């Protein structure tokens, strides 16, 4: 059975909601940012393959390729949301200092919902 990538968005929401009461507030928020991105990234890859038979590479260029494929298909909103979510995910995963993290986590969850809504309409 294949993994349901939407579970990552559910987890992102839980981590965000629990951040205030957790002893690991920043870790919760950073993980929320990361999981919300990966939920949308993988659902986007699945749609590209399932709808248009586009295989996405498995290397680090895959993230950019997914964005570029949606631009080529004239779905710029999806590409832009994925782009900003990936920047947020990279910052959350690699920056030692990352300000305004609660708002960024909330924004990534919002963007994830937008991407998923757009994908379902295709």
Describe the protein in words:
With 122 residues, the protein is mostly helical. Helices cover 75% and strands 0% of the residues. The chain has helices spanning 6-18, 25-52, 62-72, 76-94, 101-121. It is globular, with a radius of gyration of 14 Å. The model has no long low-confidence stretch (mean pLDDT 96).
- Low-confidence parts lasting 5 or more residues at pLDDT below 50? none
* Rg, Cα atoms, Å: 14 Å
**Which bin fits the share of residues in helices?**
over 70%
The tally of strands reads 0
Instruction: Give the overall average pLDDT.
Output: 96
Please sum up the structure shown.
The protein has 122 residues and is mostly helical. It contains five helices and no strands. The model has no long low-confidence stretch (mean pLDDT 96).
